[in-house]
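Final paragraph of the annual report: two paired records, presented back to back.
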Amino acid sequence: MKVHKNSVPAKDRIMASVFDQTAVGICITDRNRRFVLVNDAYCRIYGYTREELIGQPFTVVVPEENHEAANALHDTFIAGSPEIPLEWTVQRKGGARITVVTTAALLRDVDGECYKITTVTDVTELRTAQRLVNRFGRIMDRSYDEIYVFSADDYRFLQVNQAASSNTGYTEPELLQMTPM
């Protein structure tokens, strides 16, 4: 949405800058399920240029098996149904799949035409980290060996497993107040 400074009022230039410079992906789609506007962050998330997206069906970033559900959700939202934040598996240009969280708002222009504005946050790395933390937690819980996790700053225990508590005779809360030194 790059605009020439002298052709647009200051408040509109500010809004265009906010739209372009925010770290959250934003797209606006019309009643016909086509991209009307996308910001730079949206393009970075999906790997497309604006020119490749504007005018295209928004499902270009949705895996084919989810097209029907995404279209139905879009249509009911445009018709006035509320939409809650959702987590989706989507696809980047080239087919790589990522996980995003989306939120939506309904926009109505001065002529009464409805548009859907969607914000998109890539949470792929966060979900991967959460799976690793969960896996580590299951390993800790199931281990017969004592496992201690402590802070490098003050050497206080941050986490201990049941085996550590059983073998030392201290409860987990008691151990979390101690240091290994």
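The closing record of the year follows.
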Amino acid sequence: TTIGYGAFSGCYKLVEVINKSTLNIVAGNSDYGDVASHAIEVHTGESKIVNKDGYLFYTYNGVNYLVSYTGDDTELTLPESYNGENYVINDYAFYKCTSLTNVTIPDGVTGIGNTAFLGCTSLTSVTIGNSVTSIGRSAFFNCFSLTSVTIGNSVTSIVNQAFSNCKLVEVINKSSLNIVAGSSDYGDVARHAIEVHTGDSKIVKK
């Protein structure tokens, strides 16, 4: 009958609320202790979260969401698809996964949500595939070690602060966006860049 103030505050990956109470809990609403403030869905049935080799997926209204990763690998190539279909990376999916060092986002991914990789402080390189159209707000915010990113050819939107506070020195831009080294446009992606180019990475590890 009651959920206290802030009871679920900061539970950023709480994407599903199974509500068997009489409380009117609504997805996206901060009532009832923030229990559903980050929810994709509130329902009364069994859990719809599916674990595929450590990747947690959720499907709602025909959209597949990658909502979290529970494995231990530090270098990730995300799944090509979910049950043969495209998917999006949900908000906060990899939030503060501080052990991640390298992520390849394949062509089966169509979008990267807000704060999806925020605080992944060991992440050094990201390759974004050619089906991603949008990179959400603060998606890679505070990824202090990020030095190289590849922007896929379908990206048309990079939202505010998507790459703020990153040490990005190289942007490989395969999109049609006019990304310029030293500019704070497009989510600060090239603000600290030495070069924006279209070829292979020029970073050499010794």
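Helices lie at 31-34, 185-188. This concludes the annual technical report; the extension proposal builds directly on these records.
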